[in-house]
Design brief:
The chain has about 40 residues and is mainly alpha-helical. It has one domain. The protein is built from two helices and no strands. The termini are far apart.
């Protein structure tokens, strides 16, 4: 892979997605789903 990644930009985009749940796809494993909404 020869692409140069801006780690700070990737982290910022991850934070935006995590806070807003907008602009991406949320994927939960079966184990996380089994915890229930209160414990997630």
């Amino acid at each position: 892979m020869t692409d140069i990644l801006d780690v700070g930009r990737v982290a910022a985009l991850n934070d935006i997605l995590r806070r807003s749940l907008s602009g991406g796809t949320l994927v939960l494993s079966a184990g996380i789903v089994a915890l229930g909404r209160e414990r997630q």
